[in-house]
Amino acid sequence: MIKLIECPRDAMQGRAEFIDTAIKAAYIDQLMRVGFDTIDFGSFVSPKAIPQMRDTAEVLSLLDMFKSRSKLLAIVANTRGAEDALQFEEIDYLGFPLSVSETFQQRNTNKSIAEALKTVEEIQNKCEVNGRTLVTYLSMGFGNPYGDPYSPDLVAEFVGKLSDLDIKVISFADTIGSATSDLISSLYSINASAYPEIEFGLHLHTHPDQLKDKVVSAYEAGCRRFDGALKGFGGCPMAKDELIGNVATENLIQILEEVGEKLELDKEQLTEAMKLANVVFS
User: Fold this and answer.
1) Residue 268: partners with Cβ closer than 8 Å, 6 or more residues away
2) Beta 71-76 vs 38-44: how paired, if at all?
3) SS3 category, 90
4) Region for 267 from its dihedrals, namely left if φ exceeds 0, alpha if ψ lies in -120 to 50, beta otherwise
């Protein structure tokens, strides 16, 4: 079964102008009516680092959870953020960005990779105690611009360490749009066969004209978890000065339907969500 993860948090987080809390909540509410498996709706991180997300708890209090089957995911960057997120029963998933690049790990979370792995273990333990699931994003999962070491074997080492911690969901994140179709296929094929107990996802930042080949490559290699953001808004503000856009969810839906997937989405609600996206991100 295909799992579509809609990421308004990723679409919003890099915008300089603060989006009103009520508008954020109304937009996420609309997304929850579409039928996405999960909504990556906010983050519990330092407001100095990501000021756009300083109202995540308030946004959550405004959501109408009774009209949706979508689950909620919040990004955290440290144990304290995880503890804050775990106070809210409405949140099903915590997401942590673990980087294959030492430079980016420092830029993104102010930690070394070794320190970040310890944090992953701490958060995983807290998730297990509280009945939640930790999603670990392997950022710079397809290469990095900093000259740090990278190889598919290195990624596999990270997956092995996460497997040892009993992490059940890992999403390969192409933070800067460097993935190729062949590399995507290779990473998924190798890791999915080696770790059948892990659900592997794909979080792309890519140019639209390269999207179809990359998504089909991941799909054919067994990937069934895909992240997107309506209209392709957003990108990672910590990666580079120039943002690489997110996958436009509407394009992702079209590609998956073309390969024969029947997605259980309310298309009327999706149309309304796309209209609202134009307003939110105008």
Assistant:
1) none
2) parallel
3) coil
4) alpha
pLDDT digits (tens, 9 = 90+) for 196-243: 999 999 999 888 889 999 999 999 999 999 999 999 987 554 444 344
Count of all residues that appear for the chain in the document: 282
Nearest to 100 by CA among 47, 26, 176, 37: 176
**pLDDT over 90 percentage in the chain:** 88
Q: What is the enclosing helix (H) or strand (E) of 271?
A: helix 267-280
Note whether 232 and 208 are within 8 A (CB). Answer: yes
Task: Report the distance separating Cα 280 and Cα 214, nearest Å.
Answer: 28
Longest dimension (CA), the chain: 48
List the beta strands (DSSP E) in 150-278. Answer: 169-174, 199-204, 225-228
> Is the pLDDT score of 244 beyond 70?
no
Tell me how far the alpha carbon of residue 173 is from its chain's centroid.
8
Reported in sequence order, the residue ranges of the chain that DSSP labels E, i.e. its strands, are 3-6, 38-44, 71-76, 91-99, 133-139, 169-174, 199-204, 225-228
Token couple for 229: 């953001």
pLDDT tier at 81, thresholds 50, 70, 90: very high
pLDDT at 119 (0 to 100):
98
For residue 5, what are its two tokens? 């993860």
Q: Which amino acid is at 160?
A: G
Picking from 136, 155, 134, 135, the residue whose alpha carbon sits closest to that of residue 144 is 155
Side chain identity at residue 176, one-letter code: I
Cβ atoms of 145 and 105 within 8 Å: the answer is: no
* Domains of the chain: residue spans and CATH: 3-280 (3.20.20.70)
